[in-house]
Amino acid sequence: MKIEKGGVTAAKGFLAASAEAQIKYKGRPDMALVYTGRPAVFAGTFTTNVVKAAPVWWDKELLEKKKKVHAVVLNSGIANAATGKEGRKLNYFMAQAVAEQIGAEPEEVLTASTGVIGMQLKEEPLASGAALLKEALADTAEAGTRAAEAIMTTDTVSKEAAASFEADGVTVTVGGMCKGSGMIHPNMATMLSVTTTDADIDGDVLQELVSEIVSDSFNMISVDRDTSTNDTYLVLANGASGVKIEKGTEAYENFREALAYVSTELAKKMAGDGEGCTKLMEVQVINCESREKAKILSRSVTTSNLVKTAFYGSDANYGRILCALGYAGVDFDPEKLDLTLEAGGESLLLVKDGVETGYSEEKATELLSQEKVAFICDMKEGECSATAWGCDLTYDYVKINGDYRS
Fold first, then answer.
1. pTM, full prediction
2. How far apart are CA 356 and CA 336, in angstroms?
3. Secondary structure of 31-54 in the HEC alphabet?
4. How many other CB atoms are found less than 10 A from the CB of residue 30?
5. For residue 235, which of 13, 72, 114 has the smallest C-alpha distance?
6. 154 catalytic per annotation
7. Active-site position among 45, 154, 190, 302
8. What sign does the dihedral 140-146-147-149 (CA atoms) show?
9. Does the chain have fewer CB atoms within 10 Å around its N or its C terminus?
10. What is the Cα–Cα distance from 384 to 79, expressed in whole angstroms?
11. What crossing angle do the helices spanning 291-302 and 318-326 adopt, rounded to 10°?
12. 145 in helix, strand or coil?
């Protein structure tokens, strides 16, 4: 596998665009379009929140019908959630407006929205935005980046990732973008994410892979323990490379690796850009009895507010980590546990067999002050492992969310 630059336009046959439609804000892009002239099969996972946004229902319906699609249109500023029949009508209008511009049917256009819950979209900015998107479509890396920027809300940076591999001398590429900074605690995917690939793959096979990969990437991040109403992860495959991806082949394993890399990189970028955060937390649970148990334990640490606040203060309060492991809901022997802190290529053993090692507080603070920090929890009970990602909890998180609607 080769790591590539770019995002949704990295794969053959995919174009992207952004537009200032003035859906809620002025002077910034707030609509994005990902387009392929070749019809694409798609797979997806969506929020488990009972309160689902109109675009989530729309995309789930198209997925159940196994529709092939030409585009995904996304808007920021207004989530189109808790908007009733009018919201579903306006979601259809958005799909229809784009479909008319690209010469497709509304059911060949997927939708996604992010922003304030409860506000209604309006037809005029959606229609004008669709026309602007059509004019701006391009297959350049810059066009992909602009699309990633257009779906940002409280994000501080756009998020993209891409990878490729060779199959019989032909390059197959996977590229994606996402947005997510707050209301991040997925049980399926992320806030909004679109991934494209020029691989030729059956839709059912792609869905199996997407569901599998989500559990180890997007499902392993958390910023604030709030699962969004709009979580949507879409993967489009247009077959433009001509490389057929079938189970049991080397190409299948290479494709799995590339798709897993892109989804994991995007997930980590969201965790590291949590609202108000200053650093990325990685929690590795190793030598565990089962993989599922390791997942539960690692997520319990990354979602603990007390761990997150200590992390913000660069305080090696390992007791909070032990506590979070202990209430995770799975059994283990705390007197076998080792806890190691890693950052910047250095490591520091904090706990050995459940007891403090007499480590240097100064050194611990130095390591905890870096932008990327890992905690390794060695359970000494098996051979399974899992990794979860999160971030620190700061004063700015409260400030951002205290006046989000205004």
1. 0.86
2. 12
3. EEEEEEEEEEEEEEEECCCCCCCH
4. 27
5. 72
6. no
7. 190
8. positive
9. C
10. 39
11. 130
12. helix
